[in-house]
Design a protein that fits this description.
single chain, alpha/beta, Pectate Lyase C-like, 2 domains, 10-stranded parallel β-sheet, 9-stranded parallel β-sheet, 5 helices, 29 strands, 19% helix, globular, disordered N terminus
Length: 357
């Protein structure tokens, strides 16, 4: 019997569930190989930026729009930005940091602001209901966010809420983008529905490598709205004393009610670390297939670190969960999950769910 025919005949005898698993595995391998090749090819013409100590949001935005390869050279210090750098409809770009390049938001939470939140009892308010209308007319669904945002509006006399735009980069409708060797320093996490340090929506074939994400206001890295084929490698996520609450690091899929996300949001985290300060969403995911390989959770939290939500699939392999992790995994309306070769400093007995929905 011809070998090719043998392979086809063997494949045809598999169950539908096994066929789908094989197809997804082949697709993921091809995605990783293509992204690796894209990241490994050196750029022929680099455009180099150094810091001038001022707001460089527009400078970085224009550089990425006009050049295929942009290097942020940290030899003159940090790159400060007054608002999130929004990259739209771009493709085939390399954004790279050298010499300790760090992108920092100009706005920062201060001990004075922490004290103001404490005085108002912010942490006692609900994060799921009891919202209302702000003085600027904006409607808010959650009580804690309502109080937090109104306090900041009053403090800075800022009805536009410019503080909420304090993020890093947003990739919107982008394709074939590599971000590597950069550190992102946010303003501090607080429940104000602000921006992320790195956000992605409607973007595909994104490679993020050797980056550090600290103190995102809303999230450190969120991937939503039909984004797909995302590979995150050798990255660190954490929170410092700048952050107040809402230390929710990584979100994949923003809602249970986005049917268009089905079949998208395929994300791989390889050799990533969630460090001290991270409280939850490491990651939290809906709909997508999330592969975690060689990752570590070195934080201390009583929340689930991996939060598998609506119709998501998780593959967790060769990962380590430190002694501060009380709940490594929680599934809710999850399609599948599978563990392999993981270690736990606290006793935890993982079990698989490989049933199809």
């Amino acid at each position: 019997m011809n070998k090719n025919f043998q392979y086809l005949w063997s494949f045809s005898r598999l169950s539908n569930a096994r066929k789908r698993h094989c197809v997804r595995l082949i697709e993921n391998v091809l995605i990783v190989v293509s992204l690796w090749l894209m990241a490994a090819v050196p750029a022929s013409a680099e455009y180099v930026i150094v810091s001038n100590g001022k707001d460089m949001s527009e400078t970085i935005l224009r550089a990425v729009q006009r050049h295929d390869s942009v290097v942020l050279d940290g030899k003159n210090g940090d790159f400060f930005i007054g608002n999130t750098i929004v990259l739209k409809h771009l493709s085939n770009k390399l954004i790279e940091g050298k010499n300790g390049a760090r992108i920092c938001t100009l706005f920062r939470l201060t001990p004075e602001l922490h004290a103001m939140f404490d005085s108002a009892g912010v942490k006692s308010f609900s994060t799921s209901d009891g919202g209302g209308v702000l003085s600027n007319g904006a409607r808010v669904r959650e009580h804690r966010e309502l109080v937090t945002r109104q306090l900041l509006i009053d403090k800075f006399n800022d009805p536009v809420e410019t503080f909420r735009s304090s993020g890093g980069m947003q990739l919107s409708y982008c394709r074939n983008i590599v971000v590597r060797g950069l550190s992102f320093q946010g303003p501090g996490a607080v429940d104000a529905s602000g921006n992320d340090l790195l956000g992605m929506d409607h973007s595909t074939l994104i490679w993020v490598e050797n980056c550090t994400f600290m103190d995102g206001m809303d999230g450190n890295m969120d991937i939503i709205s039909q984004s797909d084929s995302i590979f995150v490698k050798d990255c660190y996520f954490g929170y410092s004393e700048l952050s107040y609450d809402h230390k929710n690091s990584n979100l994949v899929g923003a809602s249970d009610n986005v049917a268009a996300d089905s079949g998208k949001l395929n994300v791989t985290y390889a050799n990533c670390v969630w460090g001290e300060g991270c409280a939850q969403r490491m990651p939290m995911a809906r709909y997508g297939t999330i592969t975690l390989v060689g990752c570590q959770w070195l934080c201390s939290t009583s929340h689930p670190v991996i939060d598998a939500r609506k119709n998501s699939r998780f593959i967790i392999k060769r990962c380590h969960f430190g002694k501060g992790v009380e709940i490594p995994f929680r599934g809710c309306d999850t399609a599948q999950w599978q563990w392999s070769e993981c270690t736990f400093d606290n006793f935890y007995q993982p079990s698989d769910n490989t049933n199809q929905p």
